[in-house]
Recover the amino acids of this structure.
């Protein structure tokens, strides 16, 4: 008995966005099917697994301390290790030191780190502030200027500061990651605002805000799925940007990922538990349509990359 | 394809006798069309019409129940491809595999993991809900002994044997626990199906590719079997994923009867890497896995997987709520700060997580606001002074603390005056807008 595989053809396609410059350039997006539905469409660019590097870290959960201990105070060494040893496809550099509620380092200083990391690795670089509207705008201005021609991804641009983040990115030709609070219409709206400002639609990434496993994952999951369906099935151009999931930060913030075995003996091995908390958040969002997955633990990177390989086979 | 309610109505007696439990034949017909009623409920419809309507009125994916009593689980009855379209109904069941060629210590360890793996979250009990028992030794006595032992953990059992004689031994040992028989294959399907029908037990069917699986499942459908579980068994993750999507789509979009059943997958047989096995289980939870069988059930993997099932199967139209009461975060005493927020589970998790992270013990009061977040609940008149005051006055918190300072979320700063009027004994303190700023706030608060 021959079974006829039911197929659906998409009307639309995700925009192909190039990030990084020269030999470092990689493309994201470009697919015309739901994630890994390769029997009815194509995914010319596999999702990118980015490793998060911070320019300042506080206390780390023991599972991360164990693997990051020797590089955590040196973003350049950290980024190199992520690319060369762990196989990260991109570096997501979070300028944690600039947080006005924390060290409040000047944007110029952070931009120096950006340039050093950019030089040190041969993969694209995504640069994020700390979601402080004013400081992030300042960082965007300084980093965009300094890194002219590097085609970085700069973010997060929010509705409130999108002009200040978007303008320097347009001027110095970078990609912008536009962040909205888990809502399809707000994501579209911000893309419209940024394109009205003069941003090319294929210079935009959507960051729909990531909820970790147990902390709103289902909302992010459905918003990503709905954005992807709108992009592919309804050919809605303002939802056709690739999706970024900032997983490491959110997953490792949960007590389930970071607590010790002494505090929660019933949750078992803290190292594997933390890795799975991060990895399962990533697996779900990979299925929901994430094009860039930002992770912290090298094992999570390995597992998600292996899954991408198996699903592409 | 499905018939409309009116099509079905034409074939009913139109006597409005109400014996089906619905007020009119038309109402019954509508329910049948929606897959929310069984034709069996109508005592007067002819056998001929029954046969005609049976296919049209069956749910696109049938439900399969395994086990008995409180521990029984049901999989299937899914109606959508994407959870936001409605909801996913019957949560993926996670199980563990034990085999009769394992030594006692290994079996005891695995069964111990199953027993220990019980977690409470948002008022839901999460646990490993099935044990698959494999006849690997070929020795019926050994298989029976293992089944007997597994009955001790009182979880629904999946009997795994491809030899019908061995399966009979397993069924005998399982007694009245209503196991799932795994599996009918091309080689044994007639005998295995006969056994399942004789005993009235659900049966899994396994094949390497979807053509063969469709052929075998069609055979079971033709025999009138209603409780079938599908195992697309290429045991290669990429192919399993593709098969699961194809099965769900064929069932829902094409009403392809052989695939109108829940699925079972075995990530434990797809890799020897325990972490990757867990990641694959996560994949099958998201993409249409009904029963997912793992090699082990340590809490480091089962707890995150069970939370993933909870997340994916949450009804998107109904926010998850936690119980309205005072929660002790850390070990608060009579001097610890008192905070209130709403009972939206995400709000509770994030706020309690931040308080816990601050290492400052506190009393967190959760007000019943129908599971809405702070701003939404305030706008809807559910997180307002009268409601909060009533909660505080009936909660007994006044006996637990010596001070009278109540911290409210920064987003509802505007109600502080009115709340002070409602709670004259209390001083209302406006807290932070974002939970992330709570640790700093609490550190400052407790030193003043």
């Amino acid at each position: 008995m021959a079974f006829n595989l039911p197929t659906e053809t998409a009307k639309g396609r995700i925009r192909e966005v190039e990030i990084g410059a020269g030999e470092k350039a990689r493309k994201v997006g470009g697919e015309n099917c739901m994630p890994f539905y390769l029997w009815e469409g194509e995914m010319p660019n596999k999702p990118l697994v980015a490793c998060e590097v911070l320019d300042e870290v506080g206390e780390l959960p023991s599972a991360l301390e164990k693997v990051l201990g020797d590089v955590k105070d040196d973003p350049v060494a950290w980024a190199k290790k992520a690319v060369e040893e762990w196989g990260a496809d991109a570096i997501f550099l979070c300028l944690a030191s600039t947080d006005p509620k924390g060290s409040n380092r000047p944007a110029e200083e952070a931009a120096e780190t950006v340039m050093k990391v950019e030089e040190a690795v041969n993969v694209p670089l995504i640069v994020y502030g700390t979601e402080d509207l004013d400081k992030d705008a300042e960082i965007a201005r300084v980093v965009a200027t300094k890194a002219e021609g590097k085609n970085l991804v700069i973010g997060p641009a929010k509705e409130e500061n999108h002009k200040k983040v978007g303008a320097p990115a347009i001027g110095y030709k970078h990609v912008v990651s536009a962040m909205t609070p888990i809502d399809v219409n707000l994501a579209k709206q911000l893309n419209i605002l940024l394109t009205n400002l003069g941003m090319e639609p294929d210079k935009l990434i959507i960051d729909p805000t990531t909820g970790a496993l147990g902390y709103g994952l289902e909302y992010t999951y459905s918003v990503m799925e709905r954005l992807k369906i709108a992009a592919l099935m309804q050919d809605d151009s303002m939802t056709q940007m690739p999706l970024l999931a900032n997983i490491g930060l959110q997953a490792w913030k949960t007590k389930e990922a970071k607590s010790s075995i002494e505090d929660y003996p019933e949750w078992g091995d803290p190292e594997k538990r933390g890795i799975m908390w991060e990895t399962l958040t990533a697996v779900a969002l990979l299925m929901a349509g994430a094009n860039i997955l930002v992770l912290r633990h090298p094992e999570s990177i390995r597992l998600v990359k292996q899954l991408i390989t198996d699903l592409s086979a | 394809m499905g018939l409309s309610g009116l099509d079905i109505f034409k074939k009913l007696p139109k006597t409005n006798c109400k014996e089906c439990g619905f007020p009119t034949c038309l109402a019954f017909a509508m329910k049948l069309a929606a897959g929310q009623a069984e034709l069996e409920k109508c005592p007067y419809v002819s056998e001929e019409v029954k046969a005609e309507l049976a296919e049209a009125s069956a749910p696109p994916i049938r439900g399969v129940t395994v086990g008995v009593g409180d521990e029984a689980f049901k999989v299937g009855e899914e109606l959508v491809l994407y959870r936001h379209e409605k909801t996913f109904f019957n949560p993926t069941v996670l199980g563990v595999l034990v085999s009769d060629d394992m030594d006692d210590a290994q079996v005891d360890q695995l069964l111990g993991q199953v027993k220990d793996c019980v977690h409470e979250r948002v008022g839901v009990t999460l646990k490993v809900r099935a044990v698959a028992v494999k006849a690997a030794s070929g020795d019926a006595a050994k298989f029976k002994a293992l089944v007997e032992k597994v009955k001790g953990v009182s979880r629904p059992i999946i009997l795994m044997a491809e030899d019908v004689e061995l399966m009979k031994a397993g069924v005998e040992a399982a007694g009245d626990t209503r196991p799932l028989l795994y599996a009918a294959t091309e080689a044994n399907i007639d005998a295995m199906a006969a056994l399942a029908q004789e005993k009235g037990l659900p049966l899994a069917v396994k094949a390497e590719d979807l053509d063969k699986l469709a052929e075998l499942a069609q055979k079971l459908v033709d025999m009138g079997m209603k409780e079938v579980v599908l195992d697309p068994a290429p045991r290669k993750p990429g192919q399993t994923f593709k098969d699961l999507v194809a099965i769900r789509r064929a069932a829902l979009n094409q009403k392809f009867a052989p695939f109108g059943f829940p699925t079972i997958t075995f990530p434990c047989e797809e890799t020897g890497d325990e972490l990757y096995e867990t990641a694959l289980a996560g994949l099958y939870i998201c993409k249409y896995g009904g029963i997912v069988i793992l090699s082990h059930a340590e809490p480091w993997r089962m707890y995150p997987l069970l939370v993933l099932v909870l997340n994916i199967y949450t009804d998107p139209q109904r926010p998850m709520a936690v119980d309205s009461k005072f929660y002790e975060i850390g070990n608060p005493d009579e001097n610890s700060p008192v905070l209130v927020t709403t009972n939206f589970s995400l709000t509770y998790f994030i706020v309690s997580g931040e308080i816990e992270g601050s290492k400052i013990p506190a009393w967190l009061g959760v007000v019943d606001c129908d599971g809405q977040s702070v701003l939404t609940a305030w706008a809807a008149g559910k997180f307002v002074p009268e409601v909060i005051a009533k909660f505080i006055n009936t909660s007994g918190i006044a006996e637990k603390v010596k001070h009278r300072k109540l911290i409210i979320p920064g987003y509802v700063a505007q109600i502080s005056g009115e709340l002070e009027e409602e709670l004259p004994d209390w001083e209302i303190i406006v807290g932070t807008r974002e939970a992330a700023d709570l640790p700093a706030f609490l550190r400052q608060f407790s030193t003043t």
